[in-house]
Amino acid sequence: MCFFSIYAFLRRRSPQNTPQLTWESVGDFILNVGNYVFPGVYLMSIMPDLIKRGESSPYYSLLNIKIDEVKDKYARLTMNLEEKHLQFLKTVHGGAIGSLADSAAAWATIGSADENAVPVTVEMKINFLAPVKSGLLTAEARIVHKGFKITVSDVEVKDDTGNLVAKSLVTYYLRSSQS
Question: Quick check: pTM over 0.90?
Answer without folding.
Answer: no
